[in-house]
């Protein structure tokens, strides 16, 4: 999709908060880790027990999506924080091919 967004004022989410996105309004994500610039969110994968789909919010770019390259391990909160640390350090970036404009329609404390 190679979507382009614009910088977005961060919403102060906490771990455990639920977020709904415009492209997937019936599939809420749960905030697993956050920093000043990014939020890692997951939801259960459809029809697969114990597996997750994830998306990363990038406030600076006004986009969200998976990271470039191999799939990220988001199976635990610790792995989500590791992914967040790698994003902040510049080791990963949001996929250019699979990013979408930031489309939060609802979010807050669960």
Count of individual helical segments: 1
Major sheet: order of its strands?
A: 6-5-4-3-2-1-7
Mean pLDDT, to the nearest integer, reads 89
User: How many structural units, i.e. domains?
Assistant: 1
Give the SSE order as H and E letters: EEEEEHEE
Choose one word for the global shape: globular
Q: Level of helix content?
A: 10-25%
> Which structural category do the helix and sheet elements fall into?
mainly beta
Beta-sheet strand percentage? Answer: 35-45%
Give the N-terminus to C-terminus distance in angstroms: 31 Å
Q: Count of DSSP E strands?
A: 7
**What is Rg?**
13 Å
Q: Biggest sheet, in brief?
A: 7 strands, antiparallel
Uncertain regions: pLDDT < 50 for 5+ in a row?
none
Topology:
Elements: E1 18-21, E2 24-34, E3 38-44, E4 52-58, E5 63-65, H1 77-88, E6 100-101, E7 104-108
Antiparallel strand pairs: 1-2, 1-7, 2-3, 3-4, 4-5, 5-6
Can you give a write-up of this model?
- Keywords: Plasmid.
- The protein is mainly β and about 110 residues long.
- It has one domain (about 20-110).
- It has one helix and seven strands, in the order βββββαββ.
- The longest helix is centred in the C-terminal third of the chain and has 12 residues, at about 75-90.
- It is globular, with a radius of gyration of 13 Å.
- About 30% of the residues are buried.
